[in-house]
Amino acid sequence: MLHGLLTAALAAVLALWMPRVQAQAAALPEPVARALAEAGIPESATAFYVHEIGAERPLIAAGADRSMNPASTIKLVTTYAALELLGPAFQWVTEAYAAGGLSDGVLAGDLVLKGRGDPKLTLENFWLLLRSLRGRGLREIRGDLVLDRTYFAANDHDPARFDEQPTRPYNTGPDALLVNFKAVRLTFVPVSETRLVRILAEPALPQVQIVNRLTLVNGPCGDWAGRLKVDAQGGSAATRLTFSGRYAASCGERERSYSVLPHAHYVLGLFRELWRELGGTFTGTVRDGAVGADARLIAAVESPALAQVVRDMNKFSNNVMARQLFLTLGAEGAGEPATSEKADRVIREWLAGKGLTVPELILENGSGLSRSERISARNLGLLLLSSFRSPVMPELIASLPLVAVDGTMKKRLADADVAGQAHIKTGSLTGVRSIAGYVLDAQGRRLVVVSMVNHPNAGNAQVAQDALLAWIYNRADDACCRRR
Q: Which residues form the domain of 378?
């Protein structure tokens, strides 16, 4: 009887106490709530999760179970999975094979390039591969350039589908033999003496014609890129970029990259130019194919280690690299050729193995450049808590932008106390703003933080999210989050 009364009394106390704890965990700090109100963003369109490492309960969990578009913070799922499943020292290898007799520096057949999804096969690394071929004595290729891209399944990627900006490099589709992000970097150089603007292309590909109708003017630089009028015309083998509009002399030299050729023709154009510069001879064309049984490996180039690739990917939120990595997880974990479905399955199995249940998770390409990807703030926060206990924790945290120091957080909170004290991944799409990462507060405690906003006014959410980071750093001790 007494035991029953005590149990009932305890239940009554818990019934009174638990709503207070939940309200405490759900309430937003006043500076954050005020900034949201001023930005015209209702709290119903937001999600917040803040949890001190080692604490039993979150400090803040407001809207934390809502299924939200995370934008580029979903890269934390992709990169954490990759670091654990592939290992920080994992490298991609791109190989060159001779398909035909090779004698006295002459290949009487095709040169086959085999790609395995390297996200960072840059202009420099591609040059190193060709330089290795020349160093091994190859000087003349009498066949074609054959591209083995079978590591990834073929796809009909439409670069205009996401935002109707097909020439922007972030819309470049994944490819097993992605070279130099398939980009041409243009440098705009004002020449005051002639009142002209020079446009320099790197690499200078003969298939890409630049028509320059820019006018050099005086005045402030402002949104220089927005004033450029670009007209892209052409087919699969060649294109013409016509620039018109005004360019202010006060801008100085500025750079902007464009993606205007299909993968195969980009590789062909770059190969021809570099091979010619290296003193080689090639008169063939390009086609897709596969490494044959009789082909002989003659050179290879390795990517940087995954830990470095992940750092470049997260610091600067590189969508193309993230998509390459996502598909690599599919190929390595479920077999070639890689597909998005395989990558999705590999990541879900990995999450289940870690005891993480994420029923709302939707993965399209693992980069965040998607209108369909979803996760909740709570589950992304729990993933970050899990990663802090992982052997790859140092590599993952080091890959995140450091507030006011580098990456996508370089220009934020420079005058705040939290500057240099938080590693934060950012995410940005039209109607979406998100942050996720770790804050080391003034007391030396490290906290996981996740904030997502899905609303037409999301572009105004930075003030609220910066206020959250500043508040976490300076917060007073709170009984709800002390270690037990």
A: 23-88+307-481
